[in-house]
Amino acid sequence: MKRYALVGTGGRAGLYLEAIAATYRESAQWVAFCDTNQTRMDYANHLLAKAGAAPVSTWRAGQFEAMIAETRPDIVIVTSIDRTHDDYIVRALHAGCDVITEKPMTIDAARALRIAEAIEETGRQVRVAFNYRYAPHHSKVRELLMNDTIGEVFSVHFEWLLNTEHGADYFRRWHRDKRNSGGLLVHKSTHHFDLMNFWLNSSPEQVFALGDLRFYGRENAEKRGETRFYSRAHGAPQAADDPFALHMDENPQLRALYLEAEHEDSYYRDQSVFSDGITIEDTLSVLVKYRNRTQLTYSLNAYLPKEGLNVVFNGSKGRLEMNVEENSYVNGGGLREEEGNLDACRITVYPMFGTPWEADFTAGEGGHGGGDQAMLADLFGNPPADPLHRAADHRAGTLSILTGVAGNLSMQRGTPVFFDEFEVVHKLRGR
């Protein structure tokens, strides 16, 4: 029986709370929660009770080492604000625990190096929860490329579309401050850059990026003629008919997690996406060259009328296209089995001198097209050997964020950024 402690009991934590309390209760158990906010920890215990599990002890952030010493977890699960991941990961490793962390593993190269050094010093393990790897359609692409279906991949075009519900949500909460999240190139695109490393079985060598805040923020709204502004939706009459407003009092989970917890930390989950203080980009374009010489063109836009992705691989034997439409969701605001579910997905192979054909795959049940449940089974169950090697360690976590980190540096400098400048890359390569 593995013993687990959780750090960060916000919206993303629910995925793990329910899995260990219900589905995997025969092989896993919760022993403690840690957070800056007691109200959210109490709500986490409420979720355990709903799942038929006993409540666990709760600990403030400053009591982290005391929690580990007292409750003796084998594994610490980190789902706190991105900028705090490295701190909890390193402290857990030195306290003798393995770690499972939400993506992104951390937000910059220095923090990634700190994690790598702690793993080297302690011999402990870090797993990164890349659920997108486990989604059947993404796994199918990996399988097709591994099987040489289109030969050597020369170039990839990858377009990610975030709509005005899901995309806007990053501009309402702590993610809107780049110091917390690294911006969307790190927080969100870590998924996509990890998929590229996973699909290509390679890692980046050179990155050039452009980005800007073009849609969200007060200045952009003023340019479009907006004259009514508010700081947050709750209690603001101007928010009543704003399609971008988040009304937490209308959603029981958001009300319990955030609205009723504000008195402790003044964290406002429902900030206006057209207010000042947003320091992340909503329009991003990236060029990446990989060590195997594949070239990637990538774009992310966070204000579109649809949600999903289009990715195209051009190879020596043909072309592979995947077109995905996903439903939209607000983190912590609905049923997890609805998060990122497929509305439609088509994977088409165009052989160089043959008839195009569609690849078969079976869509999974649950969140992120079945990726959540498959990942949880890998983390907490007894999975069979995986020929696709979907489990992600700290190396995968580091290489995925560094594409976004390099992109952020490229935007600042106006020049390409080479991975060789990152000390952590040399450590991962054993130099």
Task: Write structural notes for this entry.
With 431 residues, the chain is α/β, with parallel strands linked by helices. It has two domains: 2-130, NAD(P)-binding Rossmann-like Domain (Rossmann fold, 3-Layer(aba) Sandwich), CATH 3.40.50.720; 132-216 and 278-370 and 387-430, Dihydrodipicolinate Reductase, domain 2 (2-Layer Sandwich). 33% of the residues lie in helices and 23% in strands. The chain has helices at residues 14-23, 38-50, 64-71, 85-94, 109-122, 136-146, 166-169, 178-181, 184-187, 189-200, 218-223, 252-257, 262-265, 371-380, 394-413, 423-428, and strands spanning 2-7, 28-35, 57-60, 75-78, 98-101, 126-128, 153-163, 204-212, 283-290, 295-304, 308-315, 318-326, 342-351, 357-358, 392-393, 417-418. The protein has a nine-stranded mixed β-sheet with strand order 14-13-12-11-7-10-9-8-16. A hairpin with a 4-residue loop joins strand 9 (283-290) and strand 10. Helix 4 runs parallel beside helix 5, helix 6 (136-146) packs parallel to helix 10 and helix 10 (189-200) packs across helix 15. The longest helix has 20 residues, at 394-413. The protein is globular and about 65 Å long. The chain starts with a strand and ends with a helix. The model has no long low-confidence stretch (mean pLDDT 95). Residues 3-130 form the Gfo/Idh/MocA-like oxidoreductase N-terminal domain. This is Dehydrogenase. GO terms for molecular function: nucleotide binding. Pfam families: GFO_IDH_MocA (PF01408), GFO_IDH_MocA_C (PF02894). InterPro entries: Gfo/Idh/MocA-like_OxRdtase_C, Gfo/Idh/MocA-like_OxRdtase_N, Gfo/Idh/MocA_Oxidoreductases, NAD(P)-bd_dom_sf.
